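Same chain as my last thread, 185 residues:
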Amino acid sequence: TVTRDSDQYRHVTLRGRFDNDRETLTQAVTDYGPGFWVMTPFRTDAGFTVLVNRGYVPSDRRAPDTRAAGQISGETTVQGLLRITEPKGGFLRANDPATDSWRSRDVAAIAAKRGLIDVAPYFVDADATANAGGWPKGGLTVIRFPNSHLVYALTWFGLALMLTAGGAFLAWDERRVRRAFAGEV
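reply #2:
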């Protein structure tokens, strides 16, 4: 079973064929600007299908005929990084399969819309190997690992403040008790 913790960003190599007629474009913002990820079904030699994010295209390359040289036909090898599906859409807007508007790379929803079977529950971001004609541009995976250092720092800072305040309170209370005791005798 593929999991986010053990498999996200794992290097993979696939051998098979692209099904270019069933590609899906999902919205993307990259160093090249706004555009789309080209998600193309890839039927592996092992008999299952993987959605491959072949890379970025700008809005003026949205139509496949504007990047015909990059439409790979026949047996090929894809290398890239395994990625976990991104269900339900983007932060502000949901995917809308009925209108073919995709904000995220939701493998199950894309597979259902395109009528794909035996689809892996993950996708692969293709590496930067150049495509004929220059489009799509692969290798743009943004690798993000959880970074909780600020939370840890704030936790320990808060604990240190509480310890200091507790010590100050104990010292104050001890002095108050001693003064009261000295006054009684």
